[in-house]
Amino acid sequence: MMVGNVGKRDMRRPAQHHCHLLLGGTLLLVLTSAALSCPARCECSAQTKSVSCHRKRLPSIPEGVPIETRTLDLSKNKLRLITAYNFSSFLQLEDLDLSDNLISVLEPGCFHSNLALRSLNFRSNQLMLVAKGVLSGLTNLTHLDLSHNRLVILLDHAFQDLHRLTFLEVGNNQLVFISQRAFTGLLGIQSLTLERSNLTVVPTDALAHLHNLIELHMRFLSISFLKPFSFKRLTRLRHLDIDFWPLLETLPPLSLHGLNLTTLFITNTNLSAFPGLALRNLPYLTHLNLSYSRIQHIYQGELGQLPQLLELRLQGAQLLTIEPLAFVGLKSLQLLDVSQNRLDSLERGVFASADTLQRLCLGGNPLVCDCRLLWLLNSFKPPSLQILDIQPECSAPQHLLGRTLRDLKEPLVSRYMTCTKPRIGPNTTQLLMANEGQPARLSCTAEGAPRPSVVWITPHRRYITSKSSGRVEVQPDGTLEIKAAELHDSGVYLCVASNPAGNASLSASLAVKSLGTGDRFHYSNRSSNYLTDANSTWGNGTVLYNMTVPIDMKTILISAAMGCLSFLGVVVFCFLLLFAWSRGKGRHKSNFDIEYVPRKSNGAAADVAETSGPRRVNMKMI
Ligand SMILES: *[C@@H]1O[C@H](CO)[C@@H](O)[C@H](O)[C@H]1NC(C)=O
Ligand SMILES: *[C@@H]1O[C@H](CO)[C@@H](O)[C@H](O)[C@H]1NC(C)=O
Ligand SMILES: *[C@@H]1O[C@H](CO)[C@@H](O)[C@H](O)[C@H]1NC(C)=O
Ligand SMILES: *[C@@H]1O[C@H](CO)[C@@H](O)[C@H](O)[C@H]1NC(C)=O
Ligand SMILES: *[C@@H]1O[C@H](CO)[C@@H](O)[C@H](O)[C@H]1NC(C)=O
Ligand SMILES: *[C@@H]1O[C@H](CO)[C@@H](O)[C@H](O)[C@H]1NC(C)=O
Ligand SMILES: *[C@@H]1O[C@H](CO)[C@@H](O)[C@H](O)[C@H]1NC(C)=O
Ligand SMILES: *[C@@H]1O[C@H](CO)[C@@H](O)[C@H](O)[C@H]1NC(C)=O
Ligand SMILES: *[C@@H]1O[C@H](CO)[C@@H](O)[C@H](O)[C@H]1NC(C)=O
Ligand SMILES: *[C@@H]1O[C@H](CO)[C@@H](O)[C@H](O)[C@H]1NC(C)=O
Ligand SMILES: *[C@@H]1O[C@H](CO)[C@@H](O)[C@H](O)[C@H]1NC(C)=O
Ligand SMILES: *[C@@H]1O[C@H](CO)[C@@H](O)[C@H](O)[C@H]1NC(C)=O
Q1: Which ligand is nearest the CA of 260, by number?
Q2: Transmembrane segments in this chain: where (predicted)?
Q3: What is each CA distance from 454 to 122, 370, 423, 468, in whole angstroms?
Q4: What is the distance between the alpha carbons of residues 600 and 587, in angstroms, rounded to a whole number?
Q5: Helix, strand, coil: what percent of the chain each, to 5?
Q6: pLDDT tens digits for 102-155?
Q7: What span, in angstroms and rounded, lies between the C-alpha atoms of 150 and 100?
Q8: Sorting pLDDT into bands at 50, 70 and 90, what band is 620?
Q9: Neighbours of 229 (CB within 10 A)
């Protein structure tokens, strides 16, 4: 710094200065120092061999930049064009900053002499293309910034010599396509930023060349769908950022398959279901941020095992429920952020062990302060648990409205923060008769605070919950609805209503009357609609009604005869048809051409690589 020489000065002065200081320095040294010039209006440092011409309205590289310069800052000027000669004399250039210029053209070979370059910055220029050969030979380059340009496409082998490149920035361009071999040769790359571009699909094949990639930032993209194995062969990738994908609605189960991430951010999306299956194979995940989405429920068993997960953030989603045991696979969870949601409670039973939890953000939810939240009160909560952020407030019951959990004290707590055991009423044993094929409904009206959930156990000991769907369902009011009763539905059903204060049960019997037609053969063996998952822990449903099917000889004979007749009829009809066909043959066209255009994924541009245009299907009538 002592020789730091600002502006337009006599270039001999620093040399003299040197002489005085070094008293008897060799002539050689004097000569080298003397050779260090500094361009007009630029700032130079002889010691670090750097020249800074930042914001000088220069239309081209100024005269007089010393050839031994290592660091050259030409940012915020008006450079437009780089030819093969502009930098050819700076053989020792290591760090070149060309950001904030108007450069639109880079001639091939423009850095052919600058093989020592380590860092090259083209941020905020007007580049539309990086042709093959522009960056060739730059084997020492570690940082390349091409962000904020007008790149539309990355061509094959554009970066092929950059074996040591560690950081590549190509965000904020208008990229619509990344060619399959665009990233070949980038053996050392650790961090890639592709955010804010016009990509409509993940460039899976191009990315697959980046075997050493550790961080991938893909924020602000209009990608609506992730294919299975979208990030294949990125085995070293640890951090993936897919924030601000407003069109992303689901994360299919295999979309992240093959990755071994520790941090995953999928925020500000349109995801509507918790992507539990997609996260299944990420056992080393430590930080997961799924904030700002439309996820409403997290069901028990959906999340699987994430034994290393330390932080889970689900801020500003639209969460209504987190089922008990939902986070039971998160054995190391230390921080949970579910603030700004629509949760009415957060039960202790959600966690494997609430004792590992250290920080919790729960503010901004319409909490019902009942017995389920007692575990968060100061006198009950695990000593290491801090409640961060906005303090959670009660929005019910009426007497606690607006109170923060932190300030709740006795006697309010024991008076109002209570739950009541479910009660099923009216308590009469139901006996319902239904006709085969007709709907049957068994009611179970349960009361309690919080509202109990109802589970029905069938005579076959199948559990039907409000989530079950199919022929047998539980209505929101607890009624069991069988859409079309079958004979084997007969028996004793048990309704179990439970809430955190306890449970209650009620049994009901159903008798399904046979319609007494020949059809009964079908019905006696039709169990295909049944889920067969359950093992009873509660009732031992005893089948009340013996499903004896009265069979008599006459019925069998008649139906056999009917069967034979109709079989013969069909055979004859077929023969007639064949006959007619063979007569008419030759006059009919037996080939059909169907032309269709496959549906395009949002933004047609993505299809550049694929063979586009209508497809043809040829159908032959035999
Ligand atoms: C490079 O050289 C060309 C022609 O000699 C000139 O037009 C251009 O302005 C130069 N570029 C820079 C950045 O100096
Ligand atoms: C590239 O870097 C290595 C070590 O960092 C250095 O020895 C070599 O001279 C550099 N290559 C060039 C062409 O400067
Ligand atoms: C990229 O997207 C922006 C905004 O949607 C649009 O204005 C621009 O024309 C697109 N560019 C290309 C090359 O498609
Ligand atoms: C998100 O999904 C909802 C429901 O499918 C849809 O109405 C909405 O337009 C979507 N938002 C965006 C930004 O695509
Ligand atoms: C996954 O990552 C973890 C830690 O980041 C590492 O210990 C483990 O070996 C990796 N597994 C595979 C299969 O690469
Ligand atoms: C999680 O995502 C939200 C939304 O993008 C963001 O505000 C928050 O800072 C993120 N948290 C962390 C720890 O990155
Ligand atoms: C319902 O009635 C049965 C027997 O009549 C009785 O054992 C049971 O406790 C009653 N349940 C409730 C909730 O009143
Ligand atoms: C119902 O309550 C009994 C006793 O109160 C308890 O043993 C049982 O586990 C409860 N069942 C459920 C499903 O909560
Ligand atoms: C009918 O019952 C038999 C024996 O119980 C069973 O093997 C078969 O799969 C059943 N068929 C259907 C359609 O359920
Ligand atoms: C059903 O119970 C038996 C014994 O109680 C057990 O071995 C089996 O694993 C259970 N099946 C399921 C699906 O839970
Ligand atoms: C069901 O209960 C009956 C009578 O109480 C008993 O004989 C039978 O073994 C029980 N069945 C099962 C599967 O528990
Ligand atoms: C079913 O019928 C058999 C034979 O007729 C009889 O032994 C059995 O007790 C009956 N079971 C029931 C539940 O009625």
Answers
A1: 5
A2: 556-581
A3: 63, 20, 11, 12
A4: 39
A5: 15, 20, 65
A6: 999 899 989 999 999 999 999 999 999 999 889 998 999 999 999 999 999 999
A7: 13
A8: very low
A9: 15
Please report the beta strands in 367-501, taking only residues with DSSP state E, as ranges in sequence order: 367-368, 386-387, 394-396, 420-425, 430-435, 440-442, 445-449, 453-457, 463-464, 472-474, 480-482, 491-499
Q: How far apart are the CA of 516 and the centre of ligand 12, in A?
A: 20
Q: Are 161 and 138 in contact (CB under 8 A)?
A: yes
Look up the pTM and report it.
Answer: 0.71
- 551 — phi, psi (to 5°)? -120, 125
Looking up tokens 């665009």 gives 182
Residue 290's φ and ψ, nearest 5 degrees, are -120, 30
Instruction: Yes or no: say if 138 and 160 are a contact pair by the CB < 8 Å rule.
Output: no
Res. 541: pLDDT tops 80:
no
CA of 540 to the centre of ligand 12 (A): 17
> CA–CA separation, 365 vs 347, rounded Å?
14
The residues, any chain, with a CB within 8 Å of residue 9's CB and separated by 6 or more, are: 38
Find the 542 Cα to ligand 11 centroid distance in Å.
8
Closest C-alpha to ligand 8, atom 5: 502
Cis peptide bond N-terminal to 62, omega within 30: no
The reply to whether ligand 4 has any atom less than 6 angstroms from the CB of 246 is yes
Q: Is the CB of 535 under 6 A from ligand 11?
A: no
Measure CA 529 to chain center. Answer: 33
Q: Is the pLDDT of residue 569 over 80?
A: no
Ligand 6 centroid distance, CA of 313 (Å): 8
Sequence-ordered list of residues with C-beta below 8 angstroms from that of 386, at least 6 positions apart, any chain: 358, 359, 360
Task: Show the 3-state SS of 343-371.
Answer: CCCCCHHHECCCCCCCEEECCCCCEECCH
What lies within 8 Å, CB to CB, of 611 at 6+ separation is none
